[in-house]
Structure formats: structure tokens, C-alpha cells
Amino acid sequence: MESDSQGKKAMSSDTAEFAPTGIPGMDEMLEGKGIPRGYNVILAGGPGSGKTIFSIQFLSNGITMFDEPGVYVSVDESPIFIRDNMAKLGFDLERLEERGEFAILDVSPIRYMKGKMVGEKVSTAFRVGKKDFSLLDFRRELSSIMEGIDARRVVIDPITILMLQHADEAERRYAMIDLMQALAITGSTSLIISELRGTALEREHQFEEYLAQGVILQRTQVMRGELIKTIQVEKMRGLDHDNQPRPYRITSSGIEVYPSERVL
Ligand SMILES: Nc1ncnc2c1ncn2[C@@H]1O[C@H](COP(=O)(O)OP(=O)(O)OP(=O)(O)O)[C@@H](O)[C@H]1O
Ligand SMILES: [Mg+2]
Q: CB within 10 Å: which end of the chain, N or C, has fewer?
């Protein structure tokens, strides 16, 4: 473990049942422990709310603070872009990749199909040239890359497009259950990134939120005439978590949560 302080190592051994996020302020909302190990957690937020930054912090901290290798599944951004953007926030992903502790699974064919999906049958949306992309292929590739680095954490960012290949809602639910079961079998702690539709407290819940063991929401709210970003642990089974929305900022070194500040 490349930990630079005894505190970090102590945190690792004390929290064997948990996967701490290591994000400043975030684990305090989770009984001071983090995400229960092996859970599938949905992280939902609006565009630009910091979902990718949260994800990379979770994975990078997993490696540098808790000795847990991780895989990032990039669904709609190029890995080059991810590496460059995250380097600006101080996350040297290339170094972690070289050390065999971090890997990006680029599901880029989907990216090129985005424009074509409009007005086309969803079932044909993932055809790139002669190459079909199926959830089954995806799961196989994911397992192989996870085994390759003995991954303990995984992020799928975002899940939305992957699920769109199933036109029928019942099929989408089964596909999501399959995926979550596949992730559960690996024993890794996973973050599944999702879009948050509607910013109001009373919003329509998406079915994956019921299936997941945990749900974390990133919202933009108005407080005293100003827009502020808030994060809320909506659900984390078996944990007496903070259920209030708390403010967070995206700083030059990533997300910082302020768990004792009130916004409501
Ligand atoms: N160096 C920085 N300092 C402060 N804020 C930053 C910095 N870099 C990025 N940001 C903020 O982070 C936001 C992007 O974060 P991120 O890519 O994690 O969002 P996202 O929720 O994944 O977005 P999308 O839905 O488009 O995938 C930017 O809109 C900007 O507000
Ligand atoms: Mg993103």
C-alpha cells in the first residue's frame, strides 16, 4: 500500500466491511465508514454535477488510500479526455494504470452511435459497422478486465445509454438485475452513474434506484438566492446514514462535502 500516513492505513483496517470513498466529508455521511463493501450504489446527478469526478475520486482513493484496485467503465467520454481532465484535478490515472491498479474499459462504440439513435429503432442502436455491442459482451469484457487487475471497485459512467438498447421497460429491469448480480458476484463495490431527472425533492424515481443497495444524489438547489450543489444519501441499506442534503464544492483537487452544513 502506498499510503503516506498511518491514519490512512488505520482507516483501512478499521473499515474492512466498508469501502470508504475517501472524499473529504463524504464518509461522515455514511456513519464515518463509507459504502458497505460489495454494494451496488447508484450515483445520480444532473449534467456537470460532478458525477465523473466523484467516481474517479472513489477509484483513485480506493487505490492510494485503501489498496483496492479499480476499473472505470467509460461509456460516453474518451479515456484520453478522462485522463487529461482528471490530471488537472491532481489524479494521475496513467501512473495508476501503469502500476496495474487501475484500468479504463472504453465502451466507446456507443459514443459514436449517439447521434444515430434519434429516430432509429433502439434495438439497432448499438450496431457499429458490422460490430454488435451487447450487454453480454460488455459483462464478459468487464469481468476479464476486473480479473486482470484484481479489482475491488468498479464504476460504470453512465449506465443510461447501456440500458437504452432494451426498448421494453421489463427487459431493461431484467438487464439491470443481471448486471447488478454480475457485479455482486465479483464482490467489488460498484458505483453506477445515472442521470437525475428533475431537481425537485418530489421526483420520479428510476427503477434502478429500487434495485440498488444504495442511492446517492447530487442536486443543484437554491439557497438564499444562490445556486448551490448538494449531495444526499437517499438510501444505503443497513446503515444509519445522514439523510439530509449537504453542500459540496468541486475544488481544484476534486469534490469536498460539508457534512455539518444545513441547506434546508
Ligand atoms: N478544476 C476545477 N475546479 C473547479 N471546478 C471544476 C474543475 N474542473 C471541473 N470542474 C467542475 O466540474 C464539472 C464537471 O464535473 P463532471 O465531469 O464530474 O460532471 P458530470 O456530472 O460527470 O457531468 P456529465 O453529466 O456531463 O457527465 C464542471 O462543469 C465544472 O463545474
Ligand atoms: Mg460525467
A: C
Q: Is the dihedral of CA 44, 119, 167, 140 positive or negative?
A: negative
Q: Which of 51, 78, 251 to mutate to test the pocket of ligand 1 (most atoms within 8 A of CB)?
A: 51
Q: For ligand 1, is residue 57 a contact (CB within 6 Å)?
A: no
Per-residue pLDDT of 130-141, as tens digits, reads 344 567 778 888
Q: Which domain holds residue 149?
A: 37-225
Whether 60 and 102 have beta carbons less than 8 Å apart is answered as yes
| Closest residue CA from atom 14 of ligand 1 | 48
Q: Is residue 153 part of a domain?
A: yes
Overall pTM > 0.85: yes
Domain assignment of residue 6, yes or no: no
Give the total number of structural domains in the chain.
1
Looking up cell 456513519 gives 31
In a domain, 249, yes or no: no
CATH code for the domain of 125? 3.40.50.300
What's the one-letter identity of residue 147?
Answer: E
